[in-house]
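Today's session is about reading a structure prediction critically. Students often jump straight to the picture, but the first step is always the sequence itself: look for stretches that repeat, for charged clusters, for runs of hydrophobic residues. Only then move on to the predicted structure, which in these notes is written as discrete structure tokens rather than atom positions. Here is the chain we will use throughout the hour.
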Amino acid sequence: MKADAQIEWKIGKGFVDYNEALNFMEERVAKINEGQANELVWLVEHPPLYTSGTSSKESDLLTPKRFPVYYAGRGGQYTYHGPGQRVVYVMLDLNKRSRDVRKYVADLERWIIESLAEFNVIGETREGRVGVWVERDGGSEDKIAAIGVRVRKWVTFHGICINVEPDLSHYSGIVPCGISEHGVTSLVDLGLPVNMNDLDVTLKKTWDKIFS
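Below is the predicted structure for this chain, in token form.
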């Protein structure tokens, strides 16, 4: 049997409230730990907001009153969520795979890169910069996907976000992931006519390449 045969896939309806998402993940992770629920990949969109990770610096929140700010409890620094961005919360039991968080984060990066490749986008990782980056004309680099994870009793939660068509100006209220010398981009910003459903189909298609 494949390791992911019992994984549930769920797509949130409308814009999911961030606190509701946190509460849902807490409850689901507890049930997975107790053997009362299947693992879950949950795809959502949030209204505009900023989240603060465990390594966030107060100085990186440039306009604190622009959007609601939530403490996420995940690793990483400040990030933005909003319409046009696919947030993927991944709740996996690493007891069934490998108790190696570093490998898990690398697998998430590979999953993003494989999915972007389906749209002929070359996504790359960079030493010292978590997430996935694309090189623009002239050699500059922009971030197209972010990663922030948390693990409890070897069950994961939080996950990744990929920019499909968010309002990129919303990133100006923070220093995204503490990195000020590079920008952010999206699939549509790169000139691709991709919608959320296109990405969802691709994410599920490429999942088995990485996690089975």
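Discussion point for the tutorial: The chain has a mean pLDDT of 92.
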